[in-house]
Amino acid sequence: MSLAELIRERRSIRKCNSTPVEQELVVELLHKATRLQPTVEAGSWRVVYAGTPEARKRLVDCMLEQMSQSKLGKLIPGKLLDVFKKRFTDIPAHVIVMSTVGPDRLTNDRNYAAACGLMQSFQLLGWEQGLGMLWDTESMIQNEGFFKGIGLREDERFVGILHMGYYDKAPRSRKRTPAEQKWTVFQGQTT
Ligand SMILES: Cc1cc2nc3c(=O)[nH]c(=O)nc-3n(C[C@H](O)[C@H](O)[C@H](O)COP(=O)(O)O)c2cc1C
């Protein structure tokens, strides 16, 4: 598969099967992804991996902590919450990515952007091996309780979680915004 095909054909996987994901593969993909990105400085990002059933359960508890304690969350029937929990706990592996907060906004943004680039390379390299992922940044998990649970440090920013697993069927592509709609030609003179 060419690189262009790989980029075009990768899909977000929201439903994976129970085939285990080996930690060695995750580490290898991470190594490969970092090698594609010479601008990522060592120390500007960090990854937390959850792969065992116990770790996955703990992570899902952290993800749902705020919601299950909120007024709205308390209205959700227990059974529905259990279904939701199981859906995430069954996902074979999760990679949580954090970037380093720098001394100024530019450094923060660069570190964050580099970590995003790393995540995209990682997703693509995984896809090449038949491994599907979902990049998760849902507002539901973006709270202090979750950040504390995953061990986010004072000088770190949460970038996202990649939930990963093998899939039986890739979903169809979503509609894309034509590039022309995002295109402005900068003129030599103001009109
Ligand atoms: C920065 C970023 C954050 C994302 N956050 C979420 C998310 O919180 N929940 C989700 O379901 N998908 C999330 N996604 C996945 C996108 O929704 C997904 O890329 C989109 O549905 C297009 O599907 P595709 O990846 O199959 O092309 C995120 C993607 C990116 C790049």
Automatic annotation (TrEMBL):
Cofactor(s) essential for the protein: FMN
Pfam families: Nitroreductase (PF00881)
Keyword annotations: Flavoprotein, FMN, NAD, NADP, Oxidoreductase
Signal sequence bounds: none
Gene3D superfamilies for this protein: NADH Oxidase (3.40.109.10)
Keyword NAD among UniProt keywords: yes
GO MF entry, a single one: oxidoreductase activity
UniProt KW NADP keyword: yes
Residue ranges of every copy of the Nitroreductase domain listed in the record: 7-166
PANTHER family: NAD(P)H NITROREDUCTASE YDJA-RELATED (PTHR43821:SF1)
Assigned protein family: Belongs to the nitroreductase family.
Protein name, per record: Nitroreductase domain-containing protein
Species lineage: Bacteria, Bacillati, Bacillota, Bacilli, Bacillales
